[in-house]
Specification:
2 copies of one chain form a homodimer. The first copy, chain A, is built from 21 helices and 17 strands. Chain A is α/β, with parallel strands linked by helices. In chain A, the strands form 4 sheets. In chain A, strands 1-10-12-11-13-15-14 form a 7-stranded mixed β-sheet, sandwiched between helices. In chain A, helix 2 packs antiparallel against helix 15, helix 19 runs antiparallel to helix 21 and helix 20 runs antiparallel to helix 21. At the A-B interface, loops of A face loops of B.
Amino acid sequence: MTHQLLSFSGSMTLASICLAQSGASLSSFPPEARAAYVEYEKALFEEARPDRLRETHILLAQEPHIAGTEGDARTIERIAGIFRELNLEVEIHTIWPLLAEPISAEVQIIAPDTVNLDLKEVPLREDKYSSQATIGWNAYSGSGEAAGEVVYANYGRKQDFETLRRLGIDCTGKIVVARYGGNYRGFKAKFAEAAGAAGLIIFTDPADSGYMKGLTYPEGGYANDCCIQRGSIMTLGYQGDPLTPGIEATRDAKRRDESEVALPRIPVQPMGYGPVKEILSRMKGQAVPDGWQGGLPFTYRVTGGDELRVRMRVEQKREIKKTANVVATLRGATHPEQLVIMGAHHDAWNHGAADPLCGTIAVIESARAFSKLAAEGKRPARSVVFAAWGAEEFGIIGSTEWVEANRANLMKNAVAYINLDMASMGPQFGGAVSPSMRAVVADVAATVPAPGFTGTVYEEWSARVGAGGGVPTFGDIGGGSDHVAFLCHAGIPSAGFGSSGSRGTSYHSAYDTLVWYWRTVGADYGPAQMMTRMSMGTAARLASAPIIPLDQCAAWDDLGKQLGDLMQRPPLKEQSAGAPRLLLQSVDLSQRGRGALSRATAHAAAGTITPDELAAVNRTILGLERAWLSEAGLPERPWFKSLYASPDEDSGYDAWVLPGLRRAAERNDPEAAAVGIELLGDALSAQSRLLDSLTHNRNERSE
Amino acid sequence: MTHQLLSFSGSMTLASICLAQSGASLSSFPPEARAAYVEYEKALFEEARPDRLRETHILLAQEPHIAGTEGDARTIERIAGIFRELNLEVEIHTIWPLLAEPISAEVQIIAPDTVNLDLKEVPLREDKYSSQATIGWNAYSGSGEAAGEVVYANYGRKQDFETLRRLGIDCTGKIVVARYGGNYRGFKAKFAEAAGAAGLIIFTDPADSGYMKGLTYPEGGYANDCCIQRGSIMTLGYQGDPLTPGIEATRDAKRRDESEVALPRIPVQPMGYGPVKEILSRMKGQAVPDGWQGGLPFTYRVTGGDELRVRMRVEQKREIKKTANVVATLRGATHPEQLVIMGAHHDAWNHGAADPLCGTIAVIESARAFSKLAAEGKRPARSVVFAAWGAEEFGIIGSTEWVEANRANLMKNAVAYINLDMASMGPQFGGAVSPSMRAVVADVAATVPAPGFTGTVYEEWSARVGAGGGVPTFGDIGGGSDHVAFLCHAGIPSAGFGSSGSRGTSYHSAYDTLVWYWRTVGADYGPAQMMTRMSMGTAARLASAPIIPLDQCAAWDDLGKQLGDLMQRPPLKEQSAGAPRLLLQSVDLSQRGRGALSRATAHAAAGTITPDELAAVNRTILGLERAWLSEAGLPERPWFKSLYASPDEDSGYDAWVLPGLRRAAERNDPEAAAVGIELLGDALSAQSRLLDSLTHNRNERSE
């Protein structure tokens, strides 16, 4: 899915940039162990092999494998087969979620003339895989028929429908046409349905992803006129199987009735810009407002006029189907119960060479490397889990069900989650990362070479953003892929890794094939090798360092920065004492935390710490993470339990940091702001007590 | 011409905004005279009549009237006829500049296939005037033939040709295709020629002025696919007739030889986006870099490849031709030698309903109003001059020749110049104004009602820019229209008034007709009425107030602000003492000037000033303006004599404030910076002495 695009802006502070050069994530190793670790990491990096990445890529992208289909079942077996060969503990975690499948669809102009419009990509001679795709479809669309006049709704965002209302344009009974971009497509459908639309067409505009961006497939990599972005349009107050929120979607799970779940009711159909041009070019109403014009060669209009009528019919089957996660574990040498998890989904809308497989192969290649070194007797202290998730595309289902099934153990023992959905898309690394993980990721970036660049990932990144006057920063992590349940439901710090720098997109289309990937991203697997190394290095440090290298101080610092912004907004301004008090608490925690952690680190490095004390420090570090959870969950979204991060509620695209306060600001709700401040205050107090006990223990012994 | 677009950003300070509400431009009137003046101004405003503006518009836009043609001669007679009827002193100031006329042109694709491309707009049933235009042409193009491969150069700016060089693309012998926008078209030709191009095609891109901006003509007002922007491509180090720099282009003037003048040598042809699409869509080379994509429905490419060849042939005749300015004077009541001048050109590329006539009619309507009240015995103290300039479109020729012919008298007696080129284009007022004139213009804006808005021009302006968080500001005035010779050659403070807010452009095309104007700007002449009132009010105050309301302090304040910016740039940073010294001088002048002027104003209002003293104050005020002149002129542009303002040298679009320092900064030339600082220091010292004498005189008498 990965509908949250990689953001290179964010909140990494100069402090954490310095960490990148200081290698703080290694500082709790005693000197000899550190040297051994560095050798181990180098050996892991040596094992990230382009030829094998390519081989795995070809194996997994050989056929379409939509969740719940036979291709999906074969893909699951292929991945399980690889993991088994690696002597890992392999779990095929089978689930039975409500999925959907396309039966048929039609879109036609019925007046003033009759024109049937294509809903399928043209197979290309240059790409043998391009003939095997389904029709274009948006999973969970309502089934049925609609016909009416046409309204163009720009990106179909909240503000776009507000503009339509301001212009006096009624969507009731109309076919709304909206372009991809600006929000998660599910919100387009939700807003269109709320506005009374009879049906919705979502299309890829050439200004956003087509010829105005660059040459189109097959000459270039951008969307040609028939290229269709598929994708789910489910938007619920939780992730995962729509019928089993909060519990595992086992075969016999107690399910909600489908009628109780707010799935889309109107027909929704994605299209390419070629056929949609036929509709838009026939519109006769007023010209669009500023910012609504797309890249088709005429002035866009808001209304079609009463002579233009479009009919659409969508038929889909919603059904409980079987699919599975494949989860392989490399047991840790000394703390096997503690888990560092990396994963990417395996299901795709078609072949999925880019989405997800260019990330999935990095997970598998990482598993090979860890496994090979384990066979030589080298393995990290903690366990490393390699996961290929099912049915991500339908609503981040597989990973969510696994987290729901394992939540208690994960909350106790999970160190961190690294997500690699569609991760190897170019030579330029980036990521959205929980604050406490940023230092270790930056450290690793300073050791991995960047492809096609003389220097490390960190140096390439610095040079690139430095050219624009910036410094490398991580994005805030929120929704959009398989980290959501880990981060927001179980309080596990998470990173979503990605890379960019290729000219093109085949996103969710029939052209997301090996041929497209080789032509557009390249056939040398340099980006995939980089991403394998980035994730292996991050996982290895998290799994090996005596003191778990998660820096909660960065989260407290980030909280201060976020509060600084939020405090400017009315409902928080009114809480005159509340927000500043949180700020003071976070500053205090950050100072005390830095002191406590650096003392513990120094003792660990000097060998002046007992195993019990070390265990207590690491328990505290994980406890500080989990303290952000509120079991009652967020307002109106109880499944989302992190007070620190969530997906946003208005576009599905953004991360909301401190979502309780952010929501209060967006809704201008002073009461919610007061509640949010109180809950955060409780979390900070709990963290303060955890720090106290740590400091107290240490003080008794050595100061 | 008006190639400097109206800019609403600029350097009007909060101080001058307060002046707008203080009515400072009236404060030197004794109370009774002030009341009488206010009545007079009101009566003038009453005389700005939409029906007459429309009538004049129809009279002057009835036929094409390119400078030097028979239509031009008839237009000159028509304007002179109106002025004569108004009992003004009318001068038909005949000049003989080097003009050009189109003979023929052809552009064709000659390989891989043969396609002849249209170079003329399609006549429209909806617009009876649209059939009378010439072919598209760029005046002063080289005549001849060229054929070759194609290179696309984006906007043909300095940085675009630098990008081509960086990409390793050689323009030698190629047909360069560049789009309009981003600079003055003459620079596109200059840079293309310098890069070795064999020929240049300049086209209007739909992303900049066509369907991507809004509906096209005739349904809307934007450029349709055959719409061609004509215009001159002369770029010399001076304005006016290319053969007689610095002197009047009389019939027998001593002329330069045409071969000594750097007129374009390669053929240059403007085109619409319909025919240019045929060329661009056949290009086969690499895709364009970021920011180069236009609005045609395919990816633009930098090179055409060796299979695509274009041939072009342009034939123009350059010839010394007769044309004229029409200059009408309303004698002032008490100081007829002092001149407030307003003007707009009368020549056009075709009918010129928008450019220039919607401004020209405001000049003529102003003349009517002043004349009518003069007939009733009411006239300002100083003379008001109403000018319709010839051959502006070829190179700001008529006004320049008139200034060159009258420079000595103008430097002694001209108070200010107000330019109204193409001024009435919508309900939203704006202007680029010399700092010393800003207060009086803002004062007038606070008295003129805005069309379609309940409130004044100043209130509409505040509401509009306030919505974006800004305050009304004037743009810096530099090049682009008939104020240049006044401002830069004779040191006369100038204003370029304009208005906007209509959806469309017919700029320099066959569609610049009455029908286009009525459909796009409107047929109610509200904007023209507003612009008539703005210019009448400004002229009347400048011509009537006992103390000329020019506030040099605003210029010194602006100098401080400009220096603040320029001092950040290397060559001025190195002049460690020079720029700060200028800054101190300007602060001192501003403080002393404010004191001296407010004392003089108070005495004038109280009637405690003698006529001789008043005359001395006004001489000082004009002397302060002229002190910005340096007879040696700017480096490599000796015709430009103002140290305060000039057109820029790199794009022809910007104003350069403090051009000596600005050029030094752009060229990174510390030596030039030192010279520039010294010259400005001299100017400030001269102004200081002028202020001294004024203060000294006043002190002796009354303090």
